[in-house]
Amino acid sequence: MLRFGELNRQMPELTQATLTKDLRRLESFHLINRKVYPEVPPRVEYSLTEMGLKLLPVLKELEIWGAEFKKHSKQQKNTPTQSIL
Q1: Which tens digit of pLDDT belongs to each residue from 33-82?
Q2: How far apart are alpha carbons 38 and 66 in whole angstroms?
Q3: 3-state secondary structure of 47
Q4: C-alpha angle 11/23/16, rounded to 5°?
């Protein structure tokens, strides 16, 4: 389980509004659970649902592919291209 503040710190490039919107969307797809505790100030925790957990291997493979693609793209920028015209 992660609290909103923890998620926000792990993704500092996102605004709070964007993170909130994205979390609500993931919740609407039943990929995460949102648990609100009746406290002041409110405490909210997020966790993956069973379907969200099943998505983790796919996301890991996508992360690996993205890193390889990034490396490949950098290599292509450093390789002179020949014009076919």
Answers
A1: 999 999 998 899 999 999 999 999 999 999 999 999 999 988 887 776 66
A2: 41
A3: strand
A4: 50
